């Protein structure tokens, strides 16, 4: 058995790991802000807001463009954001280099693949379907299905349950502090990609292995070795 074959499953974050969705997220955010009478945000301002789920995203966007929002404003913003995102889930979203080929390689090796994202579940599925990636995954779980989300271990743990694998035979690939905390909290080995949406330098992420391109995932899995 090779060192790569020690793993039965690999779970991936979505935004900033498999895809660059920031342009479509920023578009939906700014259309929402316009409806609520707020000024638009630069793309560079929206990108660091991605990763914690839709409510924190809208809270940050509203707070950055005027007075701190009341709960009803946040709720209204979420509804409009989801409306705009649903209409154009992947108009400007791109799959990162090497992702399609590497996912197929891992699937061909018999690994079970999953997605664990804080993006609302409906949007997670819509984007993956629009990009032709959904069929590669044994399990897909976005935010809002459970009462918890990353970095709570219950979110990643539920994905593992759907895939019928254990933490000891699974690796998690993500790009952010939230992802690395989710892996650590869930007892899963972690691989961080250095090109995503992390709010601090990628070199500071608390990860088992840091890679700079998605095509390095198989090698990183082999380097992690056999788990106890």
Task: Describe this entry's structure for a reader.
This protein is of the alpha/beta class. The protein has two domains: 148 residues, 3-Layer(aba) Sandwich (Rossmann fold); 66 residues, DNA polymerase, domain 1. Helices cover 41% and strands 15% of the residues. The protein contains nine helices and eight strands. Helix 1 packs across helix 4 and helix 3 packs across helix 4. The longest helix is centred in the middle third of the chain and has 17 residues. The radius of gyration is 17 Å and the shape is elongated.
List the helices and strands and how they pair.
Elements: E1 9-12, E2 19-20, H1 22-35, H2 43-46, H3 54-63, H4 71-87, E3 94-95, H5 99-108, E4 112-120, H6 121-130, E5 139-143, H7 153-163, E6 170-174, H8 177-185, E7 189-193, E8 209-211, H9 217-224
Parallel strand pairs: 1-4, 1-6, 4-5, 6-7, 7-8
Antiparallel strand pairs: 2-3
Helix pairs in contact: 1-4, 3-4
The share of residues in helices is 40-55%
How is the main sheet built? 6 strands, parallel
The name of the CATH superfamily of the largest domain reads: HAD superfamily/HAD-like
Mean pLDDT: 94
Please trace the helix and strand order, writing H or E for each element. EEHHHHEHEHEHEHEEH
Beta-strand share of residues: 15-25%
Give the neighbour order of strands across the main sheet. Answer: 5-4-1-6-7-8
Q: Give the tally of structural domains.
A: 2
User: Could you give the count of β-strands?
Assistant: 8
- N-to-C CA distance: 15 Å
Class derived from helix and strand content: alpha/beta
Which shape, going by the Cα principal axes? elongated
DSSP summary: helix tally: 9
User: According to CATH, what is the class of the largest domain?
Assistant: Alpha Beta
Weakly predicted, low-confidence segments: none
CATH architecture of the largest domain: 3-Layer(aba) Sandwich
Radius of gyration: 17 Å
CATH topology of the largest domain: Rossmann fold
